[in-house]
Amino acid sequence: MVREPWRFRPISFIHHLDHAGLRALPIIFLICFLIGAVVMQQGVVQLSYFGAEVMAVNMVAILSLREVGILLTSIMVAGRSGSAFTAEIGSMKMREEIDAMRTLGIDPMDTLVLPRVAALIVALPLLTFMGDIAALAGGGVMAWVMLGLDPPLYIDKLQEIVSFRHFMVGMIKAPFAAVIIALVGCLEGLRVEGSAESLGVHVTSAVVKAIFLVICIDGIFAMFLAGIGQ
């Protein structure tokens, strides 16, 4: 059977973009908001011993943009979307739909894997940006409560502290994390055998591997960027 040539499938791309991106926004915004508030609260408490409570704003701003936003977002997406990719493709594998696609000359990589990878490459940077905003907002609420910094003063303080490079350090990691999460989730799905137990094992494996690899990539980027003075 002649293999079907690859072509971009906008409907599939938009479907996965909706599921992996838009529908993940509420939980990611909430988690990042709460973590930003907790980091600010702990920062104020610990720095109060040195009379430097206001420096907690610096800590939250830089930490949120460089590390917290991208890491929390990637971990949440790995647990939510990465596992869904494995479950969806694994279920098709169990029902022998993928074998039928190959018989018809349809490449599962083109039809199932690439649209998911492309959707996550677009979705994860956008989710990371919203996660950054949420973490800063959570820190701002806690700064208002504990330090008396009202929103205009907090925003002025952020403008003094934050530079564009801090924002880009976090954002540049997002496409790499997206590729890892999507590929691990899809490839684990393709490895599912014909049992529910196998599906459960590979869903768990996809989440664990994706989170581990994302943290490794983050550490590599952190060392590299520190080495070049960024």
Automatic annotation (TrEMBL):
GO terms for molecular function: phospholipid transporter activity. It is found in: Cell inner membrane. Keywords: Cell inner membrane, Cell membrane, Membrane, Transmembrane, Transmembrane helix. It is a multi-pass membrane protein. It comes from the Bacteria. Its main location: membrane. The chain crosses the membrane at residues 20-40, 117-147, 167-187, 199-228. InterPro entries: ABC_MlaE_roteobac, Permease_MalE. GO terms for cellular component: ATP-binding cassette (ABC) transporter complex. Could be part of an ABC transporter complex. Belongs to the MlaE permease family. This is ABC transporter permease.
